Amino acid sequence: MQSAVAIVLDCGRTNGLTFNATKYNAIVFSKAYKFRSKHFPRLKIDDKEKVFSTPMRYLGILFDQGLTGRATSKEKAAKCSPLRSMAKAVIRQKWGLT
Description:
By secondary structure, the protein is of the alpha+beta class. The protein is about 40% helix and about 10% strand.
């Protein structure tokens, strides 16, 4: 995998792109449990090592290794729960049983 990263870095350098070593993440997507191991090799950019992360956020969506979408739905549900409770309390005062 490091050779593929090196190819991307070289291509970027020839086209005037720079990559920030502190802002990248790597994740392995697989349905097979054996490929979800934490024993993957570390990737290097500019002599800085990075381990594979799980889950990974990209454009506001959380990606987990199995691409299930559970992480995103749990996060959205946690954000909506307080709003739901507040709305429920207000609605109960007007429309609930007295």
